[in-house]
User: Fold these one by one.
Assistant:
Number 1:
Amino acid sequence: MTIGAFRDSFDFFHNSWRNLLTAALIGLAAYECAELIIEDHPLRLYSAGLVVLGIVAVLAILKDWRRGVYCFVAWIAVEDLIRKYLAIT
């Protein structure tokens, strides 16, 4: 395997600084998730996951309105389940 193969796999943003920043943020997120798992705070971990899903959904909606409609329909389908299992009233 050559170094060029690794370079092509990390060419996501076409900018080495953005790639480095993305790798650092992913590492930080993994560290924080590991800390929450070790400290046995599953509710905070679930809440953080919901925040990340919300951010992804907002970005998808802003990128294409049709995806927004699909996200809205999916949200309607699972909204009550999230509230039921996380005991959010």
Number 2:
Amino acid sequence: MAQAKFLRGTPFDPFGYTAERRRERELIGWYEQQIDTILAKLAAKDLPDLVAIARAPLEIRGYGPVKDAAIPRAKAEVERLWERLA
């Protein structure tokens, strides 16, 4: 497996089409969108909440069902923080 690591993220990645990998790629896009929004709304008074939003995905860890359970919690926390900022 280690010799085939260079295939990861390419169209030839044998595991790249699994639901878990697709979900991970979607999370990357979601996080990038959050960071773009943070940068657009950057203000000193909102900094603690914006930092909390940026850090929320750090709670998404583990494999399989553990990660699947953490994703909605992290997204809900981010949503709650955005509502607080609005």
